[in-house]
Amino acid sequence: MLSIKNLHASVEDKEILKGINLEIKAGEVHAIMGPNGSGKSTLSQVLAGNEAFEVTSGEVTLNGENLLDLETEERAREGIFLAFQYPVEIPGVSNLQFLRTAVNAMRQHRGEEEMNAAEFMKLAREVSKQVDLDPSFLKRGVNEGFSGGEKKRNEILQALLLQPKLAILDETDSGLDIDALKIVSDGVNALRSEDRAILMVTHYQRLLNHIVPDYVHVLAGGRIIKSGGRELALELEEKGYGWLGIKDEEEASN
Amino acid sequence: MKQAPTLSSAFLHPVCDRLPEPLLALRKQRASTLVDMPMPTRKTENWKYSAKYLKLDDEMAISLPNEGKTGNSLAVPGYKVVFINGVMVPEASEFPDMDGIAIKRFGDLTTDEASALSLQLGSTLDPKRTQFAHLNGARFEDGLLIRLKPGAVLDQPLFIIHETWGDAPGSAYPRIFVDAGANSQMTLVEEYISSGDASLLANTVTEFDLAHGANITSIRLNMEGENVQHIGATGVVQQRSSRFESHCVGFGGPLRRHDLQVRLEGEGGECKLNGVVVTQGKQHYDNHTCIDHVAAHCNSEETYRNIAADKSHAVFNGRIHIHPDAQKSNADMNNKNLLLNSGAEIDTKPELEIYADDVKCAHGATIGQLDEISLFYLVSRGIGRRQANVLLTMAFINELVEQIPVEAVRETAQMRLNEFFEQTFQEA
User: Fold this and answer.
1) Is the complex ipTM higher than 0.90?
2) Which of B307, B336, B377, B387 should we substitute to test contact with A (largest number of A Cβ atoms within 10 Å)?
3) B403 at the A interface (CB within 8 A)?
4) Could you give the CA distance from residue B262 to residue B259 in angstroms, rounded to a whole number?
5) What is the pTM for the complete model shown?
6) How many C-beta neighbours within 10 Å does residue B99 have?
7) Beta-ladder partners of B278
């Protein structure tokens, strides 16, 4: 489904990704782990199309189509979804209006009829329950005044509504307590399906206890330095990143 | 030596005289003051940013015809009065028929009533700051006096549709006076629209005189076309424990000017002034507000937002004057601005004059741009760039639009603003 070949990317002329290679097939769940500054978030942002990051070389295809040629909104319509590490607060746009606009943009792209306000309200209420967000959150501004955990649940709510082909979860576990982690993980597990892939980016392995990956990759210094199965994450947990010769964050990012 | 043009030299033309004698006398008196009133230039302090947009010529001095088509039939959930070119159209108007509420055209007033009104007209405005209210005073041909007796409550909003139209250049001078008795209540909605494509001037004055305990809401939508220059003034005087709330939504034009002056004369008075302005292309809009805290223990709260796109120009000048006796005044003024293009210009100027020592007076102004990260967030969900821009721009003013207390007006404003922004971002 997703194929990344020798991807290099920079931000403000500083190279962060230094040759990423990754193949993800439909139905698979991949986890990318690594210390702070290793390029995990950059990879997520580049895949979603954030223009603050410049791709200097390499290739990314989604189901054979060149992803890097597409605008951010086109990528989303082709099925890329990024759950943000820091979801953005947008006062003045109601969550409901935001979600409905997004869902209808997708439906329009697929040649389906737009959902009217009443139909959408019903759907949004159901999905809100699934991530344990009170429906009153639909009426508030997008993420406005939401707690960290509420923001993350709102991200999963969006994923459940938009039904992407590839969901990228950027540090979705950060800032969550045990209960919230469980709710978010249940949401992500509900997304798992044969025709959908999930790419989790995380610093810690605790999320992987709840969402069990098929593959684990270790990212350091802008490259994937080791790949393996689920057991790799456990090994990392036990031995720390130092085990792989990653000395500190400073070095990892250089 | 060449004489500088005055308002009178450009604009003193004979007009029809179906008004009662005291109002004709008032008009004459106002006309005489125009002779010494220079046409504003960029050196005129209160027209500094806007004089260059003022393009009045002799042709436009001609009063627009009184009779005309009532082309626009906006659906109105309330009582409706239609003014065309400053003259009321009775057959298109529906007055409330309620005890305690008297609505009369100026031409229908008795001599005594007109005599009383002639003392009131203009009394809410500071003549030094509203040159063009004098022009209106010299030129109005009709007008509406809305008198609420003590305790009268108008059960539905009263809509006044001000339409300016003309096939040839000319000007119109609508005039409204609301005399709100003690503890009376009403909501007045004024919509300014236009048709035709000749160069036109709408020079409007609306005044509110609030006795103690009166509670008045004024909503003003300015939606005239690109051929209309609009110079309007709203004056408000408030007695003890009265409340005035204003919601202005203005779309830019070749020249748009609104002066809003509120004088808090009685203790415990309260005013809340909200304003939204949007401009694009080469449009202009200038809001000058002035709040006088004359009496003690009054609250004023003012929130204005401007959004300027392309090469347009928006101006906000907010003056707060706290008089020596106005102890325990509480004044809060806030103006936020959104610049959508580097070619757009916004001038914002707070003017605070405080002569009492025990007051709370806060003011703040910001100018910013659309947030790139918010935009990325929206498009990353598949929302098109144009729509995302429209959503974010609407978000900047939604908080104020949502406070418009009449649903139909709120929806009209939302719809028109949305259309406006879709045009703004059509290239995006």
Assistant:
1) yes
2) B377
3) no
4) 10
5) 0.90
6) 8
7) B251, B307
